[in-house]
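Section 5.1 Outputs to date
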Amino acid sequence: MAVRAKQIFVNLPVKDLKRSVEFFTKVGFEFDANFTDESATCMIIGDNIYAMLLVEERFQSFISKEISNAASTAEVIVALSVDSREEVDTIVQAALDAGGKPYNDPQDHGFMYGWSFQDLDDHLWEVTYMDLSAFPTQE
């Protein structure tokens, strides 16, 4: 039996929830008020795709491990696929304008275009567009 999840919730620790909400609002994301309180919020990324932004104390309550320092280590890259190269640029530029940091320069592989940023808590976000009709085929 193949696993087919109905939804995905990526849980990310944040230092300042209000500041993170302001940042991601400027990037263009919306939030579900039903899953928001003073220690957590549910950021809507797409149909059935969410990021739970949890203040570090709340995040720590779910784990027995130490929270990694995203400024010096990476455990995950949140990769988002969008509908166009222009949308890649718009999202990443909005993140940079809102105080995010660049991570990689734009990468153009012909069939795939992407650009990355770090959010205010140094989590890595990669935004990509893929044109499958231009995907190289093996002869």
